[in-house]
């Protein structure tokens, strides 16, 4: 826990001072810390990369609030935007259990293996833990799934694995299955961003998950943390190793992007109808428009987020522009179609001697039936699905050039 920021009056002219406490336990409320610090560290540069614990960022927020309270109205007016942590409500919670596994000798040890159930309730992703075929599987389940509880009967879990994931079940011995069955589930992290800056004064900056926490569906957590490191390295070079300038430059370059990354990622993870509007319909529209005119319309937002020649803000702006043009095109088409439909309805009504309203109702019913029977559309409109489940159902690769090494094993 930091005790002082920008401390100019200590002997060695260091500027961030951190007290170290001995703590025990896992996370959150379970952690017990000793009352007195065991050490005090002074430093010219404190890089907070403490992940979802977010100790420094929370402390920055508290400090900011405290300082603002002590200001008069005029001072507050000129103090700029307050520093705050945006804590999004997680309305699409998933839990996971990790499963250590060893691949058979004839399976490639450098691929991401994954499988998903058709209804979207279960999803497993296994990534290499080393180069010798040891893997870490993440079994993702809904919070109320019986298999997502602690102390599941190992035989029941084995039955579930045999039925849903026979490819993986055969790799796991009874000891591992018993360990996994006993485990408490873990929650995927909730979306969090900080802003409007990523620094506190001249000597402290925050990066990685503590600045921008996203769910791991699109591989943007560790990768954006590494990107932060690379950008900070550029800032140090560009400022001729003047660390104070580098700290401010990093915040200037990256703060807005961090917030945008979290905002976009959250929009891609809304439940039910909201998820259909913010994630599924845009993905379908992008697939159609990009296919018709790839020069005019960019690919879907997930593949855009992977591009290293665009910042997250530039991606957001580009997609806003795409969406505006798409809506304008669709609105024009629909206006034209409405005029055409009116003309056709009037012609049919006249030919069969019925009222136009009766013909309209019958035609609307037939159209709705045809849309509903199109499995390709309705299969995506399932509120139980997480984004990763929808991606698995897309026929075309979601990344721009289809370069993903993922080998999907359909459950
Ligand atoms: C199940 C799961 C699967 C994921 N899969 C992917 C993926 O496939 N691809 C991807 O890009 N991302 C993935 N992520 C996200 C990725 O793990 C994180 O985005 C990444 O680890 C963030 O790195 P970080 O260094 O900011 O934080 P962390 O890796 O969380 O590191 C923070 C470190 O700080 C330590 N710490 C915390 N508080 C203190 C303190 N007070 N004092 C001292 N040390 C402290 C912690 O113990 C930890 O070691 C996944 C996350 C989860 C939960």
Automatic annotation (TrEMBL):
Cofactor annotation: FAD
Residue ranges crossing the lipid bilayer per the database entry: 327-349, 355-373
UniProt xrefs under InterPro entries: FAD/NAD-bd_sf
GO molecular function (one): kynurenine 3-monooxygenase activity
GO terms under biological process: kynurenine metabolic process
Keyword annotations: FAD, Flavoprotein, Membrane, Oxidoreductase, Transmembrane, Transmembrane helix
Source species, domain of life: Eukaryota
UniProt KW NAD keyword: no
Listed name of the protein: FAD-binding domain-containing protein
Organism listed in the record: Fragilariopsis cylindrus CCMP1102
């Amino acid at each position: 826990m930091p005790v002082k920021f920008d401390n100019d009056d200590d002997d060695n002219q260091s500027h961030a001072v951190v007290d170290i406490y001995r703590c025990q336990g896992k996370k959150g409320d379970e952690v017990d810390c000793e009352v007195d610090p065991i050490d005090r560290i002074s430093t010219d540069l404190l890089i907070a990369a403490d992940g979802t614990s977010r100790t420094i960022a929370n402390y920055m927020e508290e400090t900011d609030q405290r300082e603002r309270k002590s200001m008069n109205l005029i001072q507050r007016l000129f103090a700029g935007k307050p520093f705050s942590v945006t804590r999004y409500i997680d309305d699409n919670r998933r839990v996971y259990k990790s499963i250590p596994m060893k691949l058979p000798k004839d399976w490639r040890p450098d691929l991401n293996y994954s499988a998903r159930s058709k209804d979207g309730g279960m999803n497993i992703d296994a990534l290499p833990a080393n180069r010798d075929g040891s893997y870490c599987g993440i079994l993702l389940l809904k919070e109320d799934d019986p298999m997502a509880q602690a102390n599941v009967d190992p035989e029941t879990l084995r039955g579930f694995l045999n039925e849903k994931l026979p490819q993986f079940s055969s790799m796991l011995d009874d000891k591992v299955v018993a360990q996994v069955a006993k485990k408490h589930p873990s929650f995927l992290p909730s979306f969090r961003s900080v802003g409007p800056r990523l620094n506190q004064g001249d000597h402290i900056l925050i990066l990685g998950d503590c600045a921008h926490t996203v769910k791991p569906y699109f591989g943007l957590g560790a990768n954006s943390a590494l990107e932060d490191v690379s950008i900070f390295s550029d800032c140090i070079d560009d400022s001729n190793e003047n660390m104070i300038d580098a700290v401010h430059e990093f915040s200037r370059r990256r703060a807005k992007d961090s917030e945008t990354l979290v905002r976009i990622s959250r929009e891609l993870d809304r439940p039910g109808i909201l998820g259909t509007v913010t994630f599924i319909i845009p993905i379908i529209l992008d697939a159609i428009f990009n296919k018709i005119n790839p020069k005019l319309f960019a690919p879907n937002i997930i593949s855009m987020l992977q591009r290293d020649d665009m910042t997250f803000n530039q991606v957001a702006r580009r997609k806003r522009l795409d969406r505006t043009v798409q809506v304008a095109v669709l609105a024009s088409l629909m206006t034209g179609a409405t005029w055409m439909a009116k003309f056709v309805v009037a012609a049919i009504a006249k030919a069969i001697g019925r009222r136009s309203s009766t013909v309209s109702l019958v035609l609307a019913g037939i159209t709705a039936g045809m849309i509903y029977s199109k499995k390709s559309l309705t299969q995506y409109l399932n509120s139980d699905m997480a984004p990763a489940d929808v991606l698995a159902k897309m026929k075309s690769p979601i990344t721009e050039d289809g370069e993903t090494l993922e080998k999907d094993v359909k459950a």
